[in-house]
Amino acid sequence: MTLSWTKPMWQKLSLRARINLLIALVLALGLAINIARLVVEAGPRVQAEDQSVIRLAREFIEMIVADLDEAPDPDARLNRIASDLSRLRHVSITRQDGAAPDARKADRAGDNDDPRSPPSWFVTLVHPETTSVTVLFLITMMVVGRALAPLEALSQAIVRIEGGSYDVRVAPGGASELAAICAKLNHLAATLGEAMDDKRQLAERAVSLQDLERKEIARELHDEFGPYLFALRAHAGALVRLSDAPEPDADALRRHGGAILEQVNALQQFNRRVLEKLRPVGLAELGLRQALEALLRLWGESHPDVAIETRISRALGATGETADLTIYRVVQEALTNVFRHADATSVNVTIEPAEQLKGPQGARDCALVRVCDNGRGLKPGHRLGLGLIGMRERILALGGSLTVASGDGGVTVEALIPN
Question: pTM of the full predicted structure?
Answer without folding.
Answer: 0.46
